[in-house]
Amino acid sequence: MNAPRRTKADAILASLPSPMQNQAASYLEAGEIVTEVKNPGVLLSLLPSAARGFLLKRGKQGVPTLMRASHDAYFDWSYTADQTEMRDLYRRAKQNQWDGEVALDWTTDVDPLNPELPVLPYEFFASARLSEFGIRYERGSKEEMAFRYDMLAWMLSQFLHGEQGALLASAQVTESVQWMDGKFYGATQVMDEARHVEVFHRYLATKLEKLYDVNDNLFVIIDALMHDARWDMKFLGMQIMIEGLALGAFGLLYKMTKEPLLKNLLKYVIQDEARHVHYGVIALREHYQTALSEKELRERQDWAFEVALLMRNRFMAHEVYEERFQGVMSRKQWNEAVLTSPGMSEFRHTMFERLVPNLRFIGLLDDRMHQHYSDAGLLRYAGGKNASQLSGDEMIAELDRRGLGDMAGAADQQLAAE
Ligand SMILES: [Fe+2]
Ligand SMILES: [Fe+2]
Fold first, then answer.
1. pLDDT digits (tens, 9 = 90+) for 45-96
2. Number of the ligand closest to the Cα of 199
């Protein structure tokens, strides 16, 4: 494989001392949002959060990070049962509560460096790709296992930070949603998200003993949602986009890991998340069909499309890069290596497989948007099952049936091509 081409900006960046490299790279990343997001309205809505995330590094300055909320709380003194499907989900959510302290076996001995029970498969990154930069990790060696360990800790740390976003966003949505049955259901989701924060944090703190900072791109999206006054934007951003992405990522990790405690933890979390996305799609489908003007609907369509692409292009484990490879390869070369790794390709596939049918179901992928999705190579996912057609149990059964799919094959092809 040819090494990615270095631009003038890369060369200048590489000549700077490390702390300055990080600062300059942050400015570049903020600048890249301007070129990546094509829709001016969407860009304007994201810029304040991009400034807080990339330039001011608000997610990396310790406790607390304050975000001002500006939504209306919606009260209904009539307590009418007003949405049967949500009432049904509420019932199921009550019946399926679980206690992370009891349901999971925390006495399991987890050794992330053990090649017999790998936390991630070698194929996830196919780290032989790094050899073109002089980084040689022999498969199953201590160094290579430590690299997998870092990648897993980075992913789980971002899951944890995303779960905190979901905890606070679901509390906001519970206040602002107009259906009484939606508020009941929302309360169960708040509890679910608290439990997810609890179990991911416990796993990271006591089993991996490593926690990465929140990724700036994730921070930007959470920050934008927490500030937005419109409940449906919180819903769209959190229940459909972030939860959709998380569901894809959890599913992939569930398929990949051989570590039994993590696998079981993910199985429980996936079943909760399937309900959350289901709630998101029924609430938004109804709202988007009945309550929005043409202009408002278009705004949501553009926002969802642009944010989907941002999420695809920008979660690059830069915190791992800075810790391990800065000075050895450029940030851009690292991005290329991540983007083309078999695990990340599979990750994008799984994520869009979950997300795109939901966008179609709620009316955000209509004839006007067809061409955009087609150009981005995403239209092929549109015919899949949406969240109202797929329960958590069905999702787990499908993951078990499909196993690792083509990932190992893709990794072999890549390694053979070098
Ligand atoms: Fe969650
Ligand atoms: Fe969730």
1. 888 888 888 787 888 888 889 988 889 999 999 999 989 999 999 999 999 9
2. 1
- Residues 25-44: b if buried by 16+ CB within 10 A, e if exposed: bbeebbeebeeebebeebbe
Beta carbons within 8 Å of 408's beta carbon, 6+ residues apart: 121, 123, 342
Q: How far is the CA of 162 from the centre of ligand 1 (A)?
A: 8
**How far, in Å, CA of 201 to CA of 208, rounded?**
10
pTM beyond cutoff 0.85: yes
What is the Å distance from ligand 2's center to 227 Cα? 19
**Centroid of ligand 2 to alpha carbon of 170 (angstroms):** 8
What's the rounded Cα separation, in Å, for the pair 207 and 235? Answer: 33
Instruction: Provide the sign of the torsion angle of the four alpha carbons 208, 166, 273, 341, taken in this order.
Output: negative
In angstroms, the Cα distances linking 202 to 208, 215, 254, 268 are 9, 20, 18, 15
Point out the ligand nearest to the CA of residue 200.
Answer: 1
3-state secondary structure of 133: helix
For the stretch 336-355, pLDDT in tens is 888 888 888 888 888 888 89
Residue ranges and CATH numbers for the domains of the chain are 65-417 (1.10.620.20)
The per-residue pLDDT for range 66-79, each reduced to its tens digit, is: 988 889 999 999 99
How many A from CA of 328 to the centre of ligand 2? 38
| C-alpha to C-alpha distance for 100 and 97, rounded to whole angstroms | 10
